Amino acid sequence: MKIENPEELKKIANKIRIHIINQVYEAQSGHPGGSLSCADIMTVLYFHQMNINEKEPQALLRDRFVLSKGHCSPALYGTLVERGFIEKEELKNFRKLEGNLQGHPDRNKVPGIDMTTGSLGQGLSVANGMALASKLEHDGYRVYCMMGDGEIEEGQIWEAAMTAHKYKLDNLCAIVDYNHLQIDGNVEEVKALDNLEGKWKSFGFHVIMVDGHDIEALIDAFTTAKLTKGKPSIIIAKTIKGKGVSFMENKASWHGKAPNKEEYEKAIKELKDQS
Amino acid sequence: MEESKIATRESYGEALALLGEKRKDIVVLDADLSSATKTNLFAQKFPDRFFDIGIAEQDMMGTAAGLATCGKIPFASTFAVFAAGRAYDQIRNSICYPNLNVKICATHYGVNVGEDGATHQMLEDVGMMRALPNMTVLCPSDDVQTKWMIEEICNTKGPAYIRLARKKTPVIYNENQVFEIGKALQIGDGMDATVIATGVTVTEALKAKTELEKEGIFIRVLDVHTIKPIDRETIVKCAMETKRIITVEDHQVVGGLGSCVCEVLAEEYPCRVERMGIKDCFGKSGKSEELMQAFEIDAQAIYRKIRKN
Asked: What is the ipTM of this complex?
């Protein structure tokens, strides 16, 4: 199910954004800001890049995806619905006792989720493990890992970066959703990332800077990563937190907050107008 | 002739190197301590399946988790203090919660570590690890048991924490001994007391048993190699049959084997439990034997405890 047409991919990203708002509104909790910022990246991964099959979610040689920034689960669940792994109905039970869609992704409860995440900073190590396993299977599959920009303040990320470099994990493509905001405010103020590109370069990664909302540019970036041999790649995707909903855009306050009825209706209307 | 002794960490290294031949799904990770944890024996034979992650225990646990999601059986080794302590959140959230098949083989537990002192003597790991859902917690007492355990744990899906000693101890069991995960071994059937021990303290308890017999005091020793799931049945049986229950471990008395036995007996057969172990303090530098003596978890201390009443 590979979709080449960027216009069609944009429509899917828009649908995922609507799923995000619906889930967070219905649950009256969750993380809309960082979910909206990564919706275009998720679309390109699941509808253009990854070798996956919704009928065989456990296929040995499938590509793997780790949502290291696990709180952005609404983006993942929305994507899995569009890709046919889970039913749309399930979204109504996001974060609810009767549902399977936990606040943070659980690989044992939902088909299509390759790793349980939630405690920040742990996903890249897990992705490395998957990439090493793939190497043992003669490079059978590629591994993708999406991190938040605030998340990479965790030290384990940099331990993992050194491991990816050591083992020349060219079947690994990391992604930073560089939306510049974390709970307490601007990432540069909370703990400056400063020269993010230089940091990853010096850790031995092939760094690709890209506009994280430009579908065609994202396709090019992932393709370049795939062609890069002998070292891991990282796509630093410049994004807007809350992208697609005007009053959520670039506001740290929408990191982990649910809209009220009025805000919800406004958000859905805006998104529908964009489709 | 001097008694042959071998540390359970050495038995582990040998077992793993042997097992690597028939189990191609085994991969081994270490954090720059392979010569001490003895995973270097595996590394020499199977370099493609050995990953030295460097001094980065949290990363090591995460990497092991990733390998496990892809069907490998990762054995992750480092000192117990860096495994259970430093990487606790990784073990909790990336291994136990997703119920991944990672075997954490943590060496250098307790004051029997010796000279390195308190920072390297892990005394809280059993409490931390047994509180985690899905986790199996093991602590073998000798060479034969360790070698059985390493092979057996590969046939048991899910996370396991195996506590291995630096200290060399005598071989207790013969090659034909039958073991079972979750089943404690009762050695002797004395009625005067049951000494419940695990790991290095099993040998100490057995020495005390021999000395006490010379004086007409007959005890039995329970070798609890599986701390979780605990063998409730055998513990209750011994509490019913013997006059005293004494636990002894190279671990804090809080959270470890002693606590575990108290929990079982409080629920099923309330009786007095005397706990021997580290009493809410840190270890220190010294020789292994000196420390076990100083912290009163050696054969002499057990002997004195039983003689006293």
From this structure: 0.97
